[in-house]
Design a protein that fits this description.
With 439 residues, the chain is mainly α. It has 14 helices and ten strands. It is globular and about 65 Å long.
Length: 439
């Protein structure tokens, strides 16, 4: 299931954010009538369709895996968190309708109605993601029931869905989707600009994508700060594993890098920033931060994995935030530098960083909760199916997802090459057609 989620989260994140890039380009076409924005909207709409279909296929497999791999978990969790999953299905259904209307609505719908339908694709996609993350947040912050003698009683699905961590976790995940998608799309168009410096389509696509990605990248640290403070209260052992913080102390230092020595309860080679962890966790430089020594070792998550994933997430996110600051500064003060070869190379190299951070952050969330599938309530080993021979379906599913990823990559490369030939603004600045969509 980890492999399935690792692939699906990429497809789903692009499906959440890409329609908003398309809607922004579409808006500029309606307002300005410039051909380049029409061509870009049509090109991006095909990408949206590809990732919608891929997300649907990869997400369907996960629903089967929940029932097949985690029967005891679903026995208890199903009645509690069934509501967000049902709402996710509703949002997905509306998204499917909206994307169909948008793709077949050219010259059939009025300009602003057509644009609104495209925007609805993005809104329903984001809602779909939020509902799923609400269910995952419940696994980290169980609420809406009473646990007695191995059974859930007095179930309140609304309270379970809107559990104490849903706001911070859904916000962090949504921003991550926009950040990763924005920089990935911007990086691809930066690479194409290096090959075709005169392309108006790739130039405008680069600017729109990096604008969305940059805004998300600068908001993400604020979201992460709120999420960390909530984790310190509700999952202190996860925060301790993230920082490889073994000993309780006041004025705790924030660790950058380092290799945890779990047996010796120490960290080698790390750089420490005094008082920073106390401020991150509690908003107070001298606050006490619990170390892993406060918890039974049987309740410790895999410290090395969680700490490494957290460092990768922060490192990749910091690099993207620096690139975002440069982009916004150049846009405001030195617009010519946006298309400078060195900046385009930097943007192209950053293409995968958002998704690296996304995968690392998801690893922190899931592995950091171990050994619990429902934090503090049910252990993962107790929820797992007793069915033997799981290695075979694992190999089959992994092969299917690798094949699916390869097909998507091939389709996108084919689509980009076709766009360069089909749309005149992709190869050179073309004269604009007057009148916008009304013409």
């Amino acid at each position: 299931m980890a492999v399935s989620l690792g692939f699906h989260i990429i497809f789903a994140s692009i499906g959440m954010a890409m329609p908003f890039l398309m809607a922004l380009s579409h808006y500029r076409w309606i307002r300005t009538g410039k051909t380049v924005y029409l061509d870009l909207t049509k090109a991006w709409s095909r990408g949206v369709a590809i990732f919608f279909a891929t997300g649907a296929v990869s997400g369907t497999a996960l629903s089967f895996e929940l029932g097949l791999l985690w029967p005891r978990f679903m026995e208890h969790a199903g009645p509690i968190i069934g509501m967000p999953f049902s709402w996710e299905g509703t949002a997905f259904f509306l998204e499917a309708i909206a994307i169909g209307l948008f793709l077949y609505g050219w010259k059939r719908l009025s300009p602003w109605v057509h644009w609104s339908v495209g925007l609805a694709v993005g809104v329903t996609g984001v809602l779909s993601g939020i509902f799923v993350v609400c269910a995952n947040s419940w696994m980290n912050n169980p609420a809406g029931f009473e646990w007695f003698d191995g059974n859930a009683l007095h179930i309140d699905p609304v309270r379970a869905m809107f559990n104490p961590g849903w706001k911070t976790q859904t916000l962090h995940m949504t921003l991550a989707a926009f950040e990763a998608t924005g920089f990935a799309v911007g990086g691809i168009h930066a690479l194409l600009l290096l090959r075709r410096p005169g392309s108006a389509l790739h130039r405008e696509a680069f600017k729109i994508a990096l604008l969305i990605g940059s805004l998300a990248a600068l908001l993400q640290p604020l979201s992460g700060d709120r999420l960390a403070k909530g984790t310190a209260i509700r999952q202190p052992v996860k925060l301790a594993a993230m920082e490889a913080h073994f000993h309780t102390e006041r004025g705790a230092s924030l660790l950058i890098g380092g290799i945890p020595d779990v047996a010796g309860k120490r960290v080698r080679y790390g750089i420490r920033i005094p008082y920073a962890l106390s401020f991150l966790a509690r908003g107070d430089l001298h606050a006490e931060v619990k170390g892993m020594e406060e918890f039974p070792e049987s309740d410790w998550p895999p410290v090395l994995v969680v700490h490494a994933a957290f460092q990768v997430m922060v490192g990749a996110g910091s690099a993207l935030a620096a690139l975002a600051l440069a982009f916004l500064f150049f846009s405001a003060r030195m617009p010519r530098l946006l298309l400078h070869r060195r900046f385009l190379i930097a943007a192209a190299l950053a293409t995968p960083l958002g998704f690296v951070a996304l995968e690392a952050g998801w690893t922190v969330t899931e592995v950091g909760r171990q050994p619990w599938i429902i934090y503090g309530i049910m252990r993962t080993r107790d929820a797992l199916t007793p069915m033997p021979g799981l290695v075979y379906p694992f190999l089959v599913f992994t092969t299917v997802y690798v094949f699916l990823a390869a097909v998507v990559a091939w389709l996108m490369v084919r689509h980009i090459r076709a766009a360069d030939k089909e749309f005149p603004s992709a190869s050179a600045s073309a004269p604009d057609r007057p009148g916008g969509l009304h013409a």
